[in-house]
Amino acid sequence: MSGNTIALVTGANKGIGHEVARGLAATGATVLVGARDPRRGAEAAEKLVAEGFSAVPVELDVTDRVSVSAVAARIDREYGKLDILVNNAGILLERGQAPSQVPVELLVRTYTTNVFGVVEVTNGLLPLIRRAPAGRIVNLSSGLGSLTLTSDPEHRYGQFPLLAYNSSKSALNAVTVSYASELRSTPIKVNAADPGYCATDLNGHSGPRTPAQGAIAAVRLATLPADGPTGGFFSEDGPEPW
Ligand SMILES: NC(=O)c1ccc[n+]([C@@H]2O[C@H](COP(=O)([O-])OP(=O)(O)OC[C@H]3O[C@@H](n4cnc5c(N)ncnc54)[C@H](OP(=O)(O)O)[C@@H]3O)[C@@H](O)[C@H]2O)c1
Fold it and tell me: Which InterPro entries does the entry link to (predicted)?
């Protein structure tokens, strides 16, 4: 990677996304620090710059088509291409309700960010990714999106039946496979990353892993060599079951 490599991470102002941004910046890439709040984005980018990295704040709300178009126009104008897109922004709105108690409205809000937001951002930026020599798209999924793991009552993920969140990440896995199929004849690789259970604001800092550990799989997938996989689902330990 060189400073000529341009990477965009959505929701990079904190948590796993911020660590993905740091990890990509450490490879020498110029990282566009996506954040829906410009102040939080500027502070997050400043931190990386203070560490000697190349980082630029970019205001981006993944649920807002106008915001996505503005970012695409800006990247086109300033860089002319995008090498790496990490769709990290995500929300978890459930607070322990049983599946049958979750209102449809909560599913709609969850999917609007976790699924439709990824599609909006990917479609908006794909023309720029096609211009890069070896585009990489990474979607931040979850072990809770794995039907194999969540349907196993013996597995700890079988104890977390989060109707909206889990199904949004299963849908995101399907979205990942669809894009990988469409782009298979191009150099672009599209994969889903499972960061593991990390302590962040998303889960009230209950996870045993650090956000930096959570970033490892995504950074690896974002920097895959030409003979790397596409259309897969990976944790830092290797393939995850769908
Ligand atoms: N933590 C875990 O254990 C875990 C496990 C598996 C998967 N994941 C996934 O990893 C990703 C990062 O999660 P995290 O744990 O780091 O959560 P987090 O600390 O809550 O960070 C989420 C980030 O997404 C941003 N975001 C939310 N909605 C957005 C929108 N509409 N537009 C732009 N940015 C938006 C947030 O911005 P604001 O600061 O403005 O809210 C924040 O920067 C998510 O996709 C999550 O589902 C996390």
Answer: CBR1-like, NAD(P)-bd_dom_sf, Sc_DH/Rdtase_CS, SDR_fam
